Amino acid sequence: MSDGQSILLTGGSGYVGSHTYVALVQAGFKPYILDNFSNSKKNVVERLERITGLPVPWHEGDTRDVSLLQEIIVKNDIAAVMHFAGFKSVSESVANPLKYFDNNLAGMIGLFKAMENSACRTLVFSSSATVYGDPIEIPITEKSPKNFLNPYGYTKIVCEEMLASLSVSNTQWRNGVLRYFNPVGAHPSGLIGEDPSGPPNNLMPYLAQVAVGKLPILNIYGNDYPTPDGTGVRDYIHVQDLAEAHVAALKTLFKTGSGFTVNIGTGRGYSVMDVVYEFEIACGKSIPYQFVERRSGDIAVCYADATLAKNLLNWNAKLSLTDMCIDSWRWQSNDFS
Ligand code: NAD
Ligand code: UD1
Known about the structure:
Mean pLDDT: 96
CATH architecture of the domain at 6-183 and 237-265: 3-Layer(aba) Sandwich
Largest sheet: 7 strands, parallel
CATH superfamily of the domain at 6-183 and 237-265: NAD(P)-binding Rossmann-like Domain
Bound molecules: nicotinamide-adenine-dinucleotide, uridine-diphosphate-N-acetylglucosamine
Order of helices and strands: EHEHEHEHHEHEEHEEEHEEHEEHH
Number of strands: 14
Radius of gyration: 19 Å
Shape: globular
């Protein structure tokens, strides 16, 4: 259990933030949500109240609003921040890089200023396996070189660099950088899950929308990769495990006082076809699919070496691909869109 510290979650009503909110409450923390609802719905807050059985403290606002953030941090005696807020679509970042630089970089600078001004210097940051670009080693360790393939990936690398510079400037900064692999799944209640606006870019939400009949067919981007069945291989991680990784990261920061950068994955890769088959079992239907050209910017194989997370955070993923598909399907079937 924690000492009940107050934790600010920027982007806390989004996909990863909302699941982490629940995990933090269960671990005895007092999370507080700040979100501008640019990519989430306000009724997530009510659903979080149903899950936790407690009122959810939240504020509508933007991470670029330094004085608002500062006021929230001071007023609520915030001990640490989890920074989820940001845009995450690779294709949109290629089409509109300025939108990504403004939100992901200026948004993070706004948060830093507010934290520095209020002497709150403990942060957990949502980074991504995208920082490895086209990886030179599989499984990917944290020592693998960083490289970006698109403006979204660039913003994640720059944010990580900014965090490193802050730690050099003032040793009171304690930064936990979590490089997520492929978060999927949903809370077992079926009340919260991934809720993309518009057609999904990522495999699991696309597959789920085909299964429910919202989309006609799954396009599988390439079946000629150097993988066992020719389709791309990824390290899918259940969002519930990811939420627990945030709790573990926070506890580690409070306990050790030192920052870290860790991969958050299962250490195991599944192909697109593995996911399709497992999802068919979960939903009890066959999924229509067709093979199409490779998606530009895609890599063949990406999965984590998850050893450091185990050693440093005493955390490892527990849920299986079956759990991921069952929970995604339950969430999709509820249809809160
Ligand atoms: P999400 O879009 O569901 O959640 C992000 C939340 O931040 C949304 O509720 C949105 O309204 C809010 N937001 C965006 N910009 C904001 C701003 N300037 N001020 C206040 N609120 C703002 O995304 P997610 O999947 O929960 O991802 C959370 C973080 O994790 C992101 O930074 C993303 O880049 C990173 N990440 C996600 C994945 C993934 O596959 N989901 C993988 C790797 C990294
Ligand atoms: C994508 C992003 C990555 C980001 C990650 C998590 C790209 C190029 N990469 O990664 O930067 O960190 O999401 O948000 O967008 N697939 C299909 N059909 C689909 C969708 C996906 O076949 O409709 C395949 C892909 O080719 C890939 C696998 O499914 O082999 C997983 O794709 P996706 O869920 O988009 O994740 P990533 O490509 O790993």
